Amino acid sequence: MVSETAALIPMLPAAMAIVCLAVYVLADGFDLGVGFLLLLAPRQQDRDVMMASVAPGLDGNEAWLVMGGLLLLAVLPSGGSSPSPALHVPVAVMLATLVFRGIVLALRPRLVRLRWVCDCAFAGGSLLATLCQGVILGVAVRSGQGGGGVLDDLALPALCGAGLIGGYALLGAGWLIWRADGPAQVFGREVAHAAIVLTGATVVALALWGAFGLPSIVRLAPLAALAALLLLFAWRRIWTGRRGEIFLLAMLIVLLGFAALVVDLWPSAVSPNATIRNAVAALQAHLVMAGGAAIVVAAALVCQARAGIVLLGKVGRPAAGYGGADP
Asked: Domain range holding 268?
């Protein structure tokens, strides 16, 4: 009994890291989606509404990414000390673009005549950060499977990047349907169709990719089927559903994708021969981490809930200020 309990203790910080990363994907996913949807918004007034809808919660979302990353590094010191060289560039570029987006959002109200430049920069940074996250996921999956040929190493990150773009775009469109009024809301409903098509095509492509590995497809088939059903339901409800319905469905679809990633990688940490159980740090360190992380994660959830309350309600023409219209 004691040995079984000791074996489960390392799973607690790992589970907390998974929770932190899942919250980050949802919290930052919709503002990344709204960010690169700026490229498609036809009017400056709509872009102002879109920026104002995500500005209040933008700065705190990356905290979940930091917490999840630190917990993974603490749980897996052997894997974290020697990450795959293929991850160096996408991780660095992703972090740089996330910082860049915050700078652009702060400067945007002051650069009235160059606001369109700020919008393009914010959208480009959001798109590049999303693509980098897709590359990171693809490399992680390939490492967990023991690698492959050149085609595998290139195609899987590309598919993951396309899937994240579709999923985040659907989150962003659902957010606009829920939060915006007028033309910005109509724009959200229109782009939701394209987001569903891209996400569905990626789900099919990844399912066919997994079909070449029987154990993987057996584990992931139920999640893929459920995601496909939710996508079909979302398609039918874009114009007839309640305002928050598409956003809720998008969150469920993205969470299913995240769950598929966890199922596919578990218990591999960084390679088929390095699992959570044999790559973990000392047991005493896990006890300290589990207690400290529980307090920090609980406090962060409270702060995230308060930020969510601030974000509730409709967004019309934004007032002057941070991410808003003309000062």
From this structure: 2-311
